[in-house]
Specification:
single chain, mainly alpha, 82% helix
Length: 80
């Protein structure tokens, strides 16, 4: 039943996209998708920078300069 629900959901999404294209044209949804994807990529870049800052802070706090790789699990356990 779960697979059928996923298929129906995909079908409804395709139908709604088809309706959207007929109402506003093709250029507006494409323009909006590009804006959203660039926003998402910018957020991912900022998240990566923040994780790098946390990793550096963790290494400086523990005076560990031997191994620069710190797993997210170690960071999570130390910060909580």
């Amino acid at each position: 039943m779960a697979k059928a629900n996923a298929d129906v959901g995909l079908l409804m999404t395709a139908y709604n996209l088809h309706r959207l294209v007929h109402i506003v044209g093709i250029k507006t949804p494409i323009k909006r998708a590009i804006q959203l994807s660039s926003y998402f990529l910018e957020l991912m870049k900022l998240l990566g920078l923040k994780l790098a800052q946390i990793r550096t802070w963790f290494l400086l706090k523990n005076k560990s300069n031997i191994n620069f790789y710190v797993s997210l699990k170690q960071l999570y356990l130390t910060l909580t």
